[in-house]
Amino acid sequence: MKKLLLLIVLFIEGFTCVAQNPVLWGIMRIGGSLGQGTIYRINGDGTNFTVAHAMGAGSSQGSLVLHPNGSFYGLTVAGGGSANGTIFKYDPVGNTYTTLYSFNTSDGYYPRASLFLASDGNFYGMTAQGGLNNQGTFFQFNPVSISFNKILDFGLSNGNLPNGNVVQSGNKIYGMTTNGGSAPLSGGVIFSYDIITNQYFVVHNFLFATGFTPFGSLIKGTDGLLYGMAFGGGVTGHGVIFSLDPASNIYNVLHNFDGVNGAAPNGALVQAGSSNIFYGFTQQGGANNKGVIFSFDISGNTFSKLYDFDIATGSSPNGSPIIASNGKVYGHASSGGANSLGGTFSFDPVSNNFNVLYTGSFTNGGFPDGDLIEFNVPLSVNDLVSESAINLFPNPVISILNIDLTAFEGQQLSISIIALDGKIVSKSELTASPVSGISINGLSKGSYTVRIAADNQIIYKRFMKI
After folding, report:
1. How confident is the model over 199-245, as pLDDT tens digits?
2. Any residues with CB less than 8 A from the CB of 4 and at least 6 apart, and which?
3. Cβ atoms 107, 61 nearer than 8 A
4. CATH code of the domain made up of 5-12+384-465
5. Three-class SS string for 100-152?
6. Contact at 8 Å (CB) between 413 and 454?
């Protein structure tokens, strides 16, 4: 049969797609039947809230990260053999929770953020305490061999006390520390780590005048630049939005928070597809001094406050926003709400409607710190099909990724592209032809996972955008 080529426009710029009610997963820091928080899922419209797992081996202040094997991986700040925190795996199909590694004082402990899956197949992360100087560590974890490797002990000169996640650009891992470095007042650093040469390098020392003490994480924009926020410093002392060019290590302040339109950003930005628009939260400032939702257009450095958090509906988000496949912004309020335990919310950037989806409780969990992740779990373990069932070509790929779907010709498929941080960057529904081509021009260079859902079967396959 002559193969037909169907070019799927994934509307990456606007996240336009058929799906209207995404399934979201997250972590609550306290509560649940064991008191240490919960792993939960909820529909994008607030229906079908379900506690999937009660955390009993220590609470988590980070987020779930999706691996191509269909399982979530995460970190806890306590529990484990030494009561210093753990690396865990949660299988949403079999509903099984497994502790993979227990942190200790020598290798680092109290990991406050999340893991990051790099292109070499390893997870990378940081601890806020422990290590040689008791100022945190930078580590690598292999999910296949279940092996842990401490890469670096943080200290005064190379940065210390990290609170965020790392991100990848090319062969380098980038991260931030909240304190340390060679600048006056030791306001933290941006660092790089080359996964090929194993070289660690401080690329920027934070100064109060241009941004200070970052608590959040960097993200890589589709333009190749890294974007982030500093919790304090800047012109008014309320923090800044900045960019870093990984090619030149040039740091630029893009926006100074002024308190009225937000202050003390504590998470990371998220980019709306390949557009120039980023969304973010601040923990403080705004009309009620409980934080804001904002957008930022990098084409003109235009800042827009979109929503003021308040105590009644949830306040002071510690985490970062996600943009789900329906185009809405989702996040966690870390406090406030009807029970003063925070909750889960959605924000529609088209209508500016804010909705509380879940109100934190001691029964089901509260005080969330991390980010949400969109993932529609397979119905059973038999639904996970070997990745050999499909072929991707060319791989690595520049602009059009072809998928051999001969075995599924005529079936209705849902195809998602998942970034290394577990976030869905595009989603589309289609009727399969023998060969389907996906435009990935809007994606930045790096490693991604294709997720194909067909008749209750889930297939995962990795590819590299170059």
Report:
1. 999 999 999 999 999 999 999 999 999 999 999 999 999 999 999 99
2. 433, 434, 435
3. no
4. 2.60.40.1930
5. EEECECCCEECCCCCCEECCCCCEEEEECECCCCCCCEEEEEECCCCEEEEEE
6. yes
Residue 270's nearest CA partner among 255, 280, 261, 262 is 280
Return d(Cα 384, Cα 460) in angstroms, integer: 8
Sheet holding 38-43, edge to edge: 50-54, 38-43, 23-28, 373-374
Token couple for 321: 């926003």
Q: Are strands 219-220 and 200-205 parallel, antiparallel or unpaired?
A: unpaired
Residue closest to 174 by CA, chosen among 219, 224, 241: 219
Tokens of 277: 């628009």
The whole-angstrom distance between residue 164's C-alpha and the CA centroid of its chain comes to 10
Residues comprising the chain, all counted: 466
Reference 293, options 313, 233, 25, 206; nearest CA is: 313
Q: Model-level pTM?
A: 0.85
Residue 117 sits at φ, ψ, to 5 deg, of -90, 115
Domain boundary assignment for the chain: 5-12+384-465, 23-374
For Cα atoms 176, 182, 185, give the angle at the middle one, nearest 5 degrees.
Answer: 85
Q: Is the pLDDT of residue 20 over 90?
A: no
Helices and strands per DSSP (H, E), number in the chain: 0, 37
**DSSP states of 358-376:** EE-BTTTBB---S--EE--
Q: Alpha-carbon distance 196 to 248, whole Å?
A: 19
Rounded CA separation 334/328 (Å): 19
Burial class (CB in 10 A: 0-12, 13-18, 19+), 408: buried
Fold of the domain spanning 23-374: Neuraminidase (2.120.10)
Angle at 167 between CA 373 and CA 334, to 5 degrees: 45
Contact 439, 29 (CB under 8 A): no
Cα–Cα distance for residue pair 438/161, rounded to 1 Å: 41
Name the band, by pLDDT with cuts 50, 70 and 90, for residue 17.
very low
Query: How high is the mean pLDDT of the chain?
Result: 90
* Pair of tokens at residue 165: 């996640």
State the residue for tokens 């390949």.
Answer: 274
Query: Average pLDDT for residues 380-389, to the nearest whole number?
Result: 50
Q: Give the model's confidence band at 16: pLDDT under 50 very low, under 70 low, under 90 confident, else very high.
A: very low
Q: Which residues contact 181 (CB under 8 A, 6 or more apart)?
A: 157, 158, 159, 187, 188, 189, 202, 205, 206
The answer to whether 325 and 416 have CB atoms below 8 angstroms apart is: yes
